[in-house]
Design goal:
The chain is built from 14 helices and eleven strands. The protein is an alpha/beta fold. Strands 1, 2, 3, 4, 5, 6, 7, 8, 9, 10 and 11 form an eleven-stranded mixed β-sheet that branches. Helix 3 crosses helix 10 and helix 3 packs antiparallel against helix 11.
Length: about 350
Amino acid sequence: MATSNRFNSQIGRRAFLAGAGVGAAALATCSLSRAAFAQSGDLVVSNWGGSWNDYMFESFEKQAFDGTGVNLVKDLASVSERKTRMLAERRLPRSSVDLTWISDSDAFELNDGGVLEEIDYSLIPNSDNIIPELRSPYYVPAIYGGVVVLYNPNTIKTPPTSFEDLWNPDYKGRVGLYDQIYFNYIYAASLAAGGTLSDVEPAFDKLLEMKEKIQPRIYPSHDALAAGFENGEIDISANYSARALLWKNKGLPIEMAYPEEGAIAIAFGVGVANKASNREAAYEYLNAMLSADGMANVARKTYYSVATTDAALSEDEKASLEFTQEQKDKLHFVDYPYAAQNDAAWLDWWNKEFKG
């Protein structure tokens, strides 16, 4: 099995990034049609880059396709860019990707846009072990968790209890936000201001207050946010519960605080493009992901709870990844239709008003 990155923003989305040592002849494959790629065994997986992509490769992708002749091609970009491209390709005879990693909300939006295939679970034997509440007709869930408060216990001696702590004037210039999960900060601000996930109007004034009075630092990636904690630039943030566990395990000065408003539930998984070229390999990928060992490896790498009941994890490992029942009862779930209708406007506001 060979792997490569298919797209690079610096030289254009159509440019194929060959592996180290591959010359101009390999770059000429850019001109091949997707049909030719499929015949040669290429499987194009769209995903976030950085450590997340590495975790998936190490957890199950390499084991699933090593020696099979399938060439795993990676399309690495932010989810907003990947969604925009898939929606723009609706009228084309083939999608540029076969599979895409997305959140539960992204999956709803892409399904509503007609670019995801209805999942044929009969082709995924390991799907029998998916937690029923997480099962979806338009994407295969892999992991779940919640957005909570992260803080440095060395500099914040009294643990935060609320999303409202992000507006504490004592933390001016010391709050860190991750750009790509802007929607979660809108949700958190809405909850802090007395709103809901189905009506986030209170969030916008609340975030402008943060911009003016707290002057948060905005980071382009999860890894950059983690570095902000490590080098002492920031003391507090809101992010996924799994990131808190992961970074703490790596020795970063980070603890997790469950907000009194309730955490914002999040699930991630994989959708099949409606016009995928290598559908057979795509379903092989999904089955490998949901295997007992695959899910256990994903859990250990990402520190998320997994979407299956038979992951090869010890009871202690399972307990360390789960919220308590009380915390589960306080989870806020995304209103998918509302989010899909408003996400483009939220992103525009975030870029122009909050970041601008």
